[in-house]
Amino acid sequence: MKNFYVPATTLDYCQEKQYPDKYLWVIHKLYSYENRASIPGSYKLLKAEYLKNILGRYKPVLNDLINDGIIETDNQYFVGKISKGYRLSEEYKYSPYIRVPLDLSSPSLVNYINNINTNYYPSRVFLGEVTYPNTYQTLYDSPNVNLMLTKVTTNLFNVLSQSSLSKESRDYATQYLNSISADFKPKQYIAKQLAYEMSIDKIEQQDFYLVQDPKTGRVFTNITNLPGKLRQFLKINGIGNLIEIDLITSQPFLLNGLIDKALRNNPDVKKYREITTEADIYNYLADRLGFTRSYAKEKMIKTVLFGKIKDYNLKSDIVKIFKCEFPTVWDVILKYKKEDYTQLALALQKQEADLMINKVAIELFNQNTQFFTVHDSIISNVFNKELIIKTINDVYSKELHLLPQLKIK
């Protein structure tokens, strides 16, 4: 981490404080989140322990920012369950940003930044901004997994640090955003514009980060948060013309891995496996619904896979058809959602990370391949195409006994 990115109008306010860096960090955290959030204006949950580790005495900082109208809180706090949420107030969340080079005075923040900048994954896995020693030994029941994850995430960060964007990326971003401006409300458009600008700026400034989610093992970097339209301008070691290889209908395909072996001979399970490996589940459902593929995809993801088990969802057209066509698969979905509907999403994301990070990425690094990961996809030089395809197919065939459909772009 090299810079804070904050609304330009907050800089003078922060610099008047005894520890400007603490105030800049909080605003930077919320400003970056606002411009990446899938739901504009949503609150960022910040654990008290997390804030204490980074800021030390954090309450006076938050109270100042709230009382002075710079940030807001939802005040929703349930012990052991939900942390308080925070967001920038309306006046600041859509303001143009200023890049502020780090000038640290707070001892706790100095220690935190130094850990991130100089000790990336030496003997433990840094998950977000807090260090959790040996976390993955409890998630994945293997004494060697933590070492393997440390190695692969270190390698991923090393490749990330060699990334750059071609000069055309800024002009393209401007032209593209201008072409879609009419499709968004003014504030949504500004948020999108800021997200593009900050993504480009961070790579240009070599301000790289790598975060691994402790719940799922998913890896988040500058590349995963780079808008898809800009990936065509990526370079590794100054070499461009990269390709991206990703799984088609990834989440419905990965659902196969959660179905017990004893159920795989059921006729509807066989049909589901065949469609998700040889055809297109979204087209299949669209044909039966009489709607477009995009509509079927949206409903499949939001309702069947990741929706709550509520009457209005259970009565929806796509759930009725899915239950009719794939009753055994639907029972598996309900099993995962029984206690908490988010558990299915977590299970699918864990499986994705286990396959792509713990297995595919490790195998590719063992063969001295340089690449980026974007969850279910690999971005690399075109001359690595056949090796990457073979590695993905070998891993998925061994682990799921299925071959995924791959898309190359």
Walk me through the structure.
This protein is of the alpha+beta class and 409 residues long. It contains 19 helices and 15 strands. It has helices at residues 11-15, 20-34, 48-55, 59-67, 90-93, 107-118, 135-139, 145-160, 168-180, 186-204, 250-254, 267-278, 281-289, 293-305, 311-314, 317-325, 327-337, 342-366, 385-400, and strands at 3-7, 44-45, 71-73, 85-88, 97-101, 126-127, 130-131, 163-165, 210-212, 219-221, 234-236, 242-247, 371-374, 377-381, 406-408. It has a 4-stranded antiparallel beta sheet with strand order 13-14-12-15. The chain has a 3-stranded antiparallel beta sheet with strand order 2-4-3. The chain has a two-stranded antiparallel sheet with strand order 1-5. A hairpin with a 2-residue loop joins β6 (126-127) and β7 (130-131).
What is this entry, summarized?
With 409 residues, the chain is an alpha+beta fold.
